[in-house]
C-alpha cells in the first residue's frame, strides 16, 4: 500500500462579490500607500502602521474569514496586514513568515502574464534530490491561506501591469 507520510494542505477560494469588496479594500489601503524601501525590489506598506485596517479588512471579507476559520478549525484574527505591489522588473526574494501559524494572500490586481507566487516544497525530491517549486496560478479575487513556514517568492514582473496583493499573518488568540 502507498500512502502519504506528509502533505501540506492549503485553503483557496474566490472572494464572493469581488468587485464590490475590491473597491472597499482599495479605499481602505489608500490610507497607507505602498512605497519602495531600502534595497527591497518591490513596493510595500509593510513598515507602516496598518493596525487600524485589520478589523475593517476582516469585516469586508467576513464570509471568507468564516471559511478560513473552518479550514484551520480555530477562530482567527489578523496579527499583521500589509500590501505589496510589483511594477515592471520588481520581484520578491525567497522568504517565509515564521514557523507557527498561517499566512494569507489576497490577489488584488493580477493578469495572466504576471508571474505567480511560487512555493517551495520544504523537503527535496527523494529520487532526484532536487528542490520542488510549485507556482500557484490564480486570478484576481483569489484568497489563499498556507502555513507560515512554507517559503515562497515572486519572480520578476516583466510586464507593464502592476501586480498587487494584500498579505496577512493570522493570530489564533482572538
Fold and architecture overview:
The protein contains three helices and eleven strands. With 174 residues, the protein is an alpha+beta fold. It has a single domain, classed as Jelly Rolls. The strands form two sheets. The protein has a seven-stranded antiparallel sheet with strand order 1-9-6-11-4-3-2, covered by helices on one side. Helix 1 (18-29) packs antiparallel against helix 2. It is globular and about 55 Å long. It starts with 10 loop residues before the first strand and ends with a strand. The mean pLDDT is 96.
CATH class: Mainly Beta
Number of strands: 11
Give the overall shape. globular
Beta percentage is 25-35%
What Rg is obtained from the alpha carbons, in whole angstroms? 16 Å
Largest sheet: 7 strands, antiparallel
- What is the CATH fold-level name? Jelly Rolls
Structural class: alpha+beta
**Fraction of helical residues:** 10-25%
CATH architecture: Sandwich
> What is the distance, rounded to the nearest whole angstrom, between the alpha carbons of the first and last residues?
42 Å
Oligomer: single chain
Average pLDDT number: 96
- Give start-end ranges of low-pLDDT stretches: none
Helix and strand pattern: EHEEHHEEEEEEEE
For the record, what is the CATH homologous superfamily label?
q2cbj1_9rhob like domain
Q: How many distinct helices? A: 3
